[in-house]
Amino acid sequence: MKKIGLFLLACSSVFAVNMAQAENVTPVVDVSPEYPESALRREAAGYVVVRFDVRDGKAHNISIVEAEPARLFDSAVHTALIRSTFEVEGDATEAANIERVYRFTPPQENTQIVAN
Fold first, then answer.
1. Which of 11, 36, 50, 109 has the fewest CB atoms within 10 Å, counting from its CB?
2. Domain count, the chain
3. 103 forms bridges with which residues in the sheet?
4. 46-55 and 25-29 as β-strands: parallel, antiparallel, unpaired?
5. How many CB atoms lie within 10 A of CB 22?
6. Domain containing residue 74: CATH number
7. pLDDT in tens, 36-86
8. Is the pTM of the predicted complex or chain greater than 0.85?
């Protein structure tokens, strides 16, 4: 059985496009979005830019900033963020306006795509 995952790329690191707000936030459990069946049938590639806050280790106020193709990967990204946990370093327990970019590429037959 082939396993379908996500190829994740956010700038030069796994996490944080908005470095000013996110440099003190680290993913603890970083759940990769599942590649949607509808995208698989279309062999679609694309990306989602998402913005969220972290409070008590969980993502809150999740909003899609940009997506291409529109809405195709949004639900997968939203679900992955809800299942992920984060650590805010230092005395803070919250972080705001964190942006993350997810890039999706169609998986190849018998290939496992993992988050980097």
1. 109
2. 1
3. 47
4. unpaired
5. 22
6. 3.30.2420.10
7. 999 999 999 999 999 999 999 999 999 999 999 999 999 999 999 999 999
8. no
